[in-house]
Design goal:
Elements lengths: L2 H12 L2 E5 H6 L1 H11 L2 E5 L5 E4 L2 H14 L2 H16 L10
Parallel strand pairs: 1-2
Antiparallel strand pairs: 2-3
């Protein structure tokens, strides 16, 4: 399993998601945005049969952008996959952090 698959599985399985209509969103926008920013929830606003908008926190967005950047280079992907494989085999070292 490659790193992209691991990240994709994690993202799909851990997300807390709420959905609402555009009308309900307008009525209680502050509450919905607080849930998104404070609880890292994903908000889906339905706008019709096959139309909608996804709202995520800025912190979540930045995290996704950083992950995308790290996975944009095949060389980085290979390094990360190699590091994960070594870790899973127990072929890693532990270092104490200096505070």
């Amino acid at each position: 399993m490659q790193l992209q698959d691991i990240v994709r599985n994690f993202v799909q399985n851990v997300r807390v998601m709420i959905t609402t209509s555009i009308s309900d969103f307008r009525k209680d926008i502050k509450n919905y945005l607080n849930k998104v920013s404070e609880n890292f929830e994903t908000l889906i606003i339905n706008r019709g049969k096959s139309s909608g908008v996804v709202v995520i926190s800025l912190e979540e967005y930045n995290s996704l952008q950083a992950t995308q950047h790290e996975l944009s280079s095949e060389k980085n992907v290979q390094r990360l996959d190699s590091a994960i494989a070594k870790f899973k085999k127990g072929d890693s070292i532990e270092k104490r952090l200096i505070e």
